[in-house]
Amino acid sequence: MMIKLLKQPQAIIGFLFITSLLAFSFYWPNLLDVNKTEALKLQDFLYDDEGRIIDAPPYTPSQVPPLGSDMFGKHIFYQVIDGAKYTILIALGIALFRILFSVGITLINPKSNFSFLNDIVQATLYIPTAILTFIFMNSLIVKQSMEPMSALKFIIIQCLILIGVGIPPLISTFSNEIKAILNKDYITNTFALGSNKVYVYYKHVLPELSTKLVLLYAQQVVQTLILMAHLGVLAIFIGGSAIVVLGDIFAPMPVAIPLAGEWAGIIGMNFAKIKAAPWTIITPLTCFALLIFALNLIIQGIQNCLETNKS
Amino acid sequence: MNFSFRSYLKRLRSIIFGILIIGIMPALLFGTNTQVEQNVWEYSIKNFKYPLFPDVFEKYQYSMTIFFGALLIGLTAALILTFFTTLLPRFLQRVVYGLLTFFESLPDLFIVVILQFGIIYIYRSSGVLIANVTNVYNNPIYLLPILTLSILPTIQLFKIALLLMKDEQHKPYVTVGRAIGLSRSYITIVHVFRNILTSLVQYYKTIFVFMLSNLFIVEYVFNLNGIMNILLNTKGVAFMVTALMIAIPFSLLFEIAESNTIKGNRQEGVEAA
Amino acid sequence: MNQHSLQIKNLRVSFHKNKERTTAVSDVSLQIEKGQTVALIGESGSGKSITSLSILQLLPPNGEIEKGTITFNGKELLKMTEKEMRKIRGNEISMIFQDAIASLNPGMKVGVQITEGLKYHKLVPKEELKTEALQLLEQVGFKNPAQVYNQYPDQLSGGMKQRILIAMAISCKPKLIIADEPTTSLDVTIQRQVLDLIDHYKTDLDASVLLITHDFGVVAEYADWVYVMLGGHIVESADVYTTFRNPLHPYTKALIGSIPNPENGQERLKSIQDYTFEDTGYEGRKFAPATYTYESSSFDAPSSLVEVEPMHYVRFYEDERKVVTIG
What angle do CA C256, C259, C260 make, to 5 degrees? Predict the structure, then answer.
């Protein structure tokens, strides 16, 4: 299957895009030859050649090439590049754990109907995932404000929420999938020839499921990314946030700034400023779109592979 | 129609139970003290509290108007586009398909933000306000949210319809139709489209669920006061009631559609046996 | 008087895929006279169906008629526009397809589908469409036309669907019916019923039938004239009696030889591969092709149909007239 995937040009393009973005995100200070702390520092005012103040942040892309800055004067371009690694790795990790947990739970008891989970799945159809996650995250934040917890614990709980939200639908997908495989004629045949259950699962069900797993994994990554973007807009940041008061003394404006540098955080932090500084939102959003497109290319490639396998 | 009220009740029970679990779970996990501060029948937006009833009905109606308006526009646009695409030469059809795969990847948030910004930009540079971008007090906007919400379903439906069309056009009955002298466009409209429409019903669930999620983003970004905004800002019992208001009619639609497609499948099964 | 209903001359059809060209039909000439049933017999892949599709110009988009003429009642079909062709299709020439099960639109009532041709060609006013449909259903042997009218194809059996297709094909009273293996997908028990229907229609309206088949039993019963096809060529053509009494081409002999004969039940039934072509010749001429293969290379050498006795044509190689016959 992997060899076949290599013959799908679009999958390779998607894969190369993501890996090079990841590599660039890790090594950009060396590659672009800039100092990382210098590039990400706050820039209060823009000065002209003679040292006079020209403007206060946010700066437009023409003032601070290439992509302008946010309201703290941080370069959007460097932020986005630096945030890429967090974004990609968080999405990959959460999708991986979603798949692992749901396969594990399904395999423990494959014949069960999971009626309790089925109820949740039925209900979540009508509640957008972003709202569902928001409810949990919000409770978590309220709790944290009342009884502070360590940053690590906070992040782990956040990730668990993100993982947990995706699991019920996946379990119902898997249990249906496994049931369909178990109903196939050749499985009946293997049982008729006297093989035991563990052998059948190991030899027949898992290999048949594995191609589907790769596909589902890629789709889960896309869904996690979209969910992260939505949460960003709702000002829920993975890794927590700090409240900074902006504006003048007479009209204080509290703004939540994310502590980790992932893209959803950049979107959320600047969302209130969308009309004044649209580039702060559009840049990370475009990156999200490109990343999802690259993932979709891979998904398309996998699907083509599966189709040629069939015929 | 072999819709059975009993199976719908069963599904409804399942939904109610699920919503109950979801509603209680945050309190269970993070302690009950998170909700005491709020009256049960209130929702709060930006630290202002509003009573849930009777506000919710008006917002509900507003959101549903946007939802079904967008669905209708999306479906019509997708079918019209499909028809014109089939008239194109083959390589252009492939280009269209490739473009669709690209547009499909755009997150809903991206489209909403770009549209909003685009309209503001046009307004600033030329003074032409294509549509109001946010609600003016007591004067809800319809045009822009409906159009925005309809974009992604249009793309998805268009893509599915194109794929179905490709399958359908190579079926023998098309050749039979041509052999008795019917023209290509007549066959496409009368035969192929009829069959595509029935096949499209199979995808209703994906599209609906997807659109509900989009509706939320549209409401949030355009700052519309709709049902999704209430859902976001309520807790406990009020949340459950609002969620049920969305779930009950939609699950009824799902049940009706499902009972009909299952019937169709069963018939095919009998034929194959 | 040369009153041919349909005449095909030197038809050549190829398909191109990925810039590669495959010739499906290389040289086919045939004629059908008024009131005749002409059988076109050959194995799958020999180009029978492509020939029939070319007559109505319904080839798939990558197929192309390269050469030849097709005249119907004195009109040249290949020079007609798509619009003119539409008037021919269904109206004057119609076709019955082999795959009856998939050939009806599953989402449309049978009765409506039958009269679509009539409606489209505006032969019958709208109000009379239903009575016309019921009549047609009765004509193809349905005892309960009113019930069948409202049914969907899924509710009918294979034989019933094929009869519906026949009803569709004869709805506009065409002068020529092309029946492309009309009984292949059906039970043996229904074959006869279907073929009889086509035959009755032919005699009633004095129409002609081009019967495409691979079953010599069917040919013996219904056809007046036989064309044997192999690898895109017609290898032998004669009236049905001559074909059975005196088959000359080894391929024809092989086909006839593969019909089970109850009289010598002891013998093993022969398959086509059991026949070797190589050392056979006729009156010093060598049959084309010399071997039985699927490859078109066996047709590379120029060959032509030769009239060996009045109205009996067999394909021989052109240059290698002399054949060294062993023994």
Answer: 145
Structure-block tokens of residue A51: 């040292």
DSSP string computed for B138-177:
TB---HHHHHHHHHHHHHHHHHHHHHHHHHHHTSHHHHHH
User: What is the nearest CA distance from A145 to chain B, expressed in angstroms?
Assistant: 10
pLDDT band, residue A127 (cuts 50/70/90): confident
Q: Helix A278-310 to helix B108-126 angle, to the nearest 10 degrees? A: 140
Instruction: Tell me if residue B188 falls in helix, strand or coil.
Output: helix
* Domain total of chain A: 1
Does pLDDT of A54 surpass 90? no
Return the half-sphere exposure (C-beta side, CA atoms, 13 A cut-off) of residue B17.
Answer: 14
Q: Rounded CA gap, C271 and A267, in Å?
A: 75
According to the model, what pLDDT value does residue C298 have?
Answer: 65
What residues have CB less than 8 Å from A202, skipping those under 6 apart? none
Q: Which among A130, A136, A278 has CB closest to B117?
A: A278
String of DSSP letters for C96-160: E-S-TTTSS-TTS-HHHHHTHHHHHTT-S-GGGHHHHHHHHHHHTT-S-HHHHHT--GGGS-HHH
HSE of A67 in the Cβ direction (CA atoms, 13 Å)?
18
- Predicted pLDDT at A41: 61
CATH label of the domain that carries residue A67? 1.10.3720.10
- Cβ contacts (< 8 Å) between C158 and chain B: which residues? none
Domains along chain B with CATH numbers: 56-261 (1.10.3720.10)
SS percent in chain C: helix, strand, coil, step 5: 35, 30, 40
Select the CATH number that applies to the domain covering C4-245 from these four: 3.40.50.300, 3.90.480.20, 3.40.50.880, 3.40.50.460. 3.40.50.300
**Tokens representing C236?**
């032998």
Domain limits for position A285: 2-310
Report which of C240, C206, C245, C211 is spatially closest to residue C226, judged by C-alpha positions.
C240
Contact C103 B194 (CB under 8 A): no
Check residue A99 and give its pLDDT: 92
CA distances (Å), C235 to each of C11, C41, C147, C167, C309, in order? 14, 10, 47, 34, 15
Nearest to B250 by CA among B1, B54, B19: B19
- Asked whether at least 3 C-beta pairs link A and C within 8 Å, the reply is no
ipTM, 2 decimals? Answer: 0.82
Establish how many alpha carbons lie within 13 A of residue A182's alpha carbon, considering only the half-sphere containing its beta carbon. 15
Angle at which helices B204-221 and B108-126 cross, to 10°: 40
User: Which residues, in sequence order, are bridge partners of residue C307?
Assistant: C313
Comparing A157-161, A225-229, B222-226, which segment has the lowest mean pLDDT?
B222-226
Contacts of A1 (CB under 8 A, 6+ apart): A211, A214, A305, A309
Contact (Cβ atoms closer than 8 angstroms) between residue B216 and residue B59: no
Does chain B reach chain A with at least 3 CB pairs under 8 Å? yes
Q: Which chains have 3 or more CB–CB distances shorter than 8 Å to chain A?
A: B
Q: What percent of chain C has pLDDT over 90?
A: 6
Strand, helix or coil for residue C92: coil
- Torsion-angle region of residue C222: left (phi > 0), alpha (psi -120 to 50) or beta? alpha
d(CA C281, CA C276): 12
Paired with C96 in beta bridges are C179
At residue A75 the predicted structure's pLDDT band, cuts being 50, 70 and 90, is confident
Which amino acid, A85?
K
Query: C103, B173: Cβ pair inside 8 Å?
Result: yes
Question: Does the structure show a pLDDT above 90 at B42?
Answer: no
- For residues C204 and C201, what is the distance between their CA atoms, to the nearest angstrom? 5
Task: For residues C253-263, give the mean pLDDT.
Answer: 77
Question: For residue B189, what is the DSSP state?
Answer: I
- Decide if A126 contacts B250 (C-beta within 8 A): yes
